[in-house]
């Protein structure tokens, strides 16, 4: 497994320093990429300048927004959080709230190394099960739709079902509980049409990722055939034919490898 990338949010600076020391002393597979003491700063950065990460360690008692409410705000920004959350709590009374928010786990403060090791082991086991499912089960499901329909999808708009050729889809963008699908006629014959559908990006990605589309950002799924250029600066920014500029927030090296598997590099 690659390095587990972690962000912590805790306005107790002593607790943050102690967490950093535990991570450095006991874990080779952990990389703490950022530590925030102000939860509002994290909310401003999330989805913009924060790189891809795996676990958010989140204190429950903070000002001006507590950890539970912060997680609710994250869900408002992005319904499909591709991260696991572990709460840091001074009291067990927060445990039920943590699990109601679909947190992976919670740890009582002061942090105990044994409990932290259990949480990391739980995260690794969960990831291992998901990877096993993707490799050994999802690709072998018995039900398959007729091949004739594989190049088109029907999307439900407010007043009709629109039938769209997959090769005409430029990109899909998450908009809370909805998904915006941007289409063009072809890479060389651009005429933009946009559809807003009452499905989230996770549902759309489940269909399109097996068709060559790439999830390059928490909120963006793209068709590589409509890429105009990729800026190498600022962590990598993809420019699409419709003018959209999308920062790569996933595993950049892996995404670039997938892109150049589909598009010849000279």
Which bin fits the share of residues in helices?
A: 25-40%
The beta-strand count equals 15
The average pLDDT is: 82
Instruction: Flag low-confidence runs.
Output: 141-149
Reading side by side through the largest sheet, how are the strands ordered?
2-1-3-4-5
What about the largest sheet?
A: 5 strands, parallel
Order of helices and strands: EHEHEHEHEHEEEEEHEEEEEH
Distance between the termini: 31 Å
* Derived structural class: alpha/beta
Number of helices: 7
Shape: globular
Q: Which band does the percent of strand residues land in? A: 25-35%
Radius of gyration: 21 Å
Question: What is the topology?
Answer:
Layout: E1 4-9, H1 13-26, E2 30-36, H2 39-45, E3 55-59, H3 67-77, E4 84-89, H4 95-100, E5 105-108, H5 113-136, E6 152-156, E7 161-165, E8 169-175, E9 178-183, E10 193-197, H6 201-208, E11 214-217, E12 220-222, E13 227-231, E14 237-240, E15 245-247, H7 252-262
Parallel strand pairs: 1-2, 1-3, 3-4, 4-5
Antiparallel strand pairs: 6-7, 8-9, 8-12, 9-10, 11-12, 13-14, 14-15
């Amino acid at each position: 497994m690659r390095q587990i990338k972690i962000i912590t949010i805790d306005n107790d600076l002593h607790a943050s320093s102690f967490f950093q020391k535990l991570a450095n002393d006991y874990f080779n597979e952990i990389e703490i990429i950022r530590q925030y003491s102000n939860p509002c700063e994290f909310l401003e950065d999330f989805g913009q300048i924060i790189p891809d990460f795996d676990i958010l360690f989140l204190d429950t008692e903070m000002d001006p927004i507590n950890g539970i409410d912060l997680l609710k705000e994250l869900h408002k920004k992005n319904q499909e959080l591709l991260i696991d959350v572990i709460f840091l709590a001074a009291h067990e009374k927060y445990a039920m709230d943590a699990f109601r928010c679909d947190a992976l786990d919670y740890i009582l403060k002061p942090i105990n190394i044994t409990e932290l090791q259990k949480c990391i082991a739980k995260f690794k086991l969960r990831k291992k099960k998901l990877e096993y499912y993707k490799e050994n089960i999802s690709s072998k499901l018995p039900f398959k739709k007729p091949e004739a329909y594989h190049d088109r999808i029907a999307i439900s708009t407010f007043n009709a079902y629109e039938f769209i050729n997959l090769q005409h889809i430029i990109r899909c963008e998450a908009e809370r509980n909805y998904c915006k699908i941007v289409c063009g006629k072809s890479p060389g014959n651009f005429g933009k049409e946009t559809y807003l559908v009452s499905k989230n990006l996770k549902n759309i990605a489940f269909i399109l990722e097996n068709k060559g589309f790439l999830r390059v950002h928490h909120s963006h799924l793209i068709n590589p055939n409509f890429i105009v250029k990729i800026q190498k600066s600022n962590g990598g920014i993809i420019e699409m034919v419709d003018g959209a500029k999308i920062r790569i927030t996933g595993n950049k090296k892996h995404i670039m490898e997938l892109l150049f598997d589909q598009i010849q590099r000279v």
